[in-house]
Amino acid sequence: MLEPALEIHGIKKSFGTTEAVRGIELTISKGEMFGLVGPDGAGKTTLIRMLCGIIKPDAGSATILGLDLATQMKEIKPRIGYLSQRFSLYPDLTVDENIEFFAEIHEVKNYAARRNELFDFTRLTPFRNRLADQLSGGMKQKLALAATLIHKPEIIFLDEPTTGVDPVSRREFWKILSSLLEEGITIFMTTPYLDEAERCTRVGLMSGGNILLTDTPKNVKKQMRGSVIEIIPNELQRVAGLLASFPNTIEVQTFGDRINVVVEEGVEPNKLKEWLESRGTSVRSARTIQPSLENVFIALLRDRDSSKTETIPAEEKGEVHA
Asked: CA-to-CA distance for 299 and 251, rounded, in angstroms?
C-alpha cells in the first residue's frame, strides 16, 4: 500500500440539529486523485473545510501528511493548498498582482520564476496584465488554481472547481490537473459532475453526511445490480410509466430525452422494445449500455432511502449532474 497522504477517523460535524458529516472513515494515498461525489448538502464542503483547518470537527481525528489536524495545523498549512467554491480573487488587481498577493500571504520569497512557470502552465501569460474582474469564468478558475499552487503544496483540496465553468474550460482545467498528478501532487476534490469523477484514481459517493462507497470508478460500477438498457422513446413520460410495470424492472432513471431502465440480467433490449410497442407506444432505439457512475449512485441512494424510516432533511437533498 502506498504511503497515506490523508487519514480520517470518525470525523463528525453538526450545525444545530443537522448532522452535516457523520463519522467519516477515509484514507487517501500520496499521489492519488480522489473525487468526492454527492448532491448539494451531502457534507462534501463541510468535510473539506474541516481538513483545511477552517472549521473544527466535533469529534474524530485526521492526519495530513503525517501531521495531526488538531494539534499541528500550523505545520500542515504550508504544505497544502485549498481552492474553495468561491475563491477570493481580487477583481481590481491584475492577474500578476493577484499571484503576487497570494505569494506574500504564503511567505514565498523570490516567486517571480514560480509565477512565470504557473502562467505558462495555465496559459495565462497573455493575460497577466488584465484585471481579474475582466477574465472569463474559466480563466478565473485557472488563476485561482495558480494562486493555490504558488507555494508548491504537496496536497491540494479543490471544492467543486469547475462548477459554472464552460465545457471547453472544464477540459483545459482537467488537463492541468492531470499534469499536477504526474508531478506527484495529491488531489482531493469534490464535484457534482459524475463524468469528472470517472477520471479520478478513486471516488467516494457521499450523501447525507455519510460516504456510501469508495473504490475505483471501474469497481464502483461493478456494484450495479442487473444491467442497464437505454431507451430513446417518442413519449418520454408514458414510456417511463410503462417501464415501471415491466416484470424485470429494478429501477427507471430518466436523463433528458433518454431513459435508463435497470433490469434483471438476461433481459434483451429487443424484448423490452417489443413489450413497449405491444402497449401502443413507439421507441426509436433500445440498447444495452455499460452502467455509469450516475446509474450506480442513484441506485445506492434508492437503496439507502428505502431502508431508512426517517425523513431525509431538506439540506441533504440536491442534484448530481452528469
From this structure: 8
Please give the grid coordinates belonging to residue 121: 502552465
* Helix (H) or strand (E) segment spanning residue 181: helix 167-182
Of 233, 234, 212, nearest in space to 223 by CA:
212
Query: What are 48-92's pLDDT values in tens digits?
Result: 999 999 999 999 999 999 999 999 999 999 999 999 987 678 999
From-to residues of CATH 3.30.70.100 in the chain: 225-290
* Residue that the C-alpha cell 437503496 belongs to: 303
Name the grid cell of 236: 418520454
**Spatial contact of 61 and 9, defined as CB atoms under 8 Å apart:** yes
Please identify which residue in the block is written with the cell numbers 497573455: 126
Q: Which fold has domain 225-290?
A: Alpha-Beta Plaits (3.30.70)
pLDDT band at 285 (very low <50, low <70, confident <90, very high): very high
Local structure of 320: helix, strand or coil: coil
- Domain 4-220 falls under CATH 3.40.50.300: yes
Distance of CA 87 to the CA centre of its chain: 17
Q: Count CA atoms within 13 Å of residue 128 on its CB side.
A: 17
Q: For residue 190, give the nearest of 44, 9, 22 by alpha carbon.
A: 44
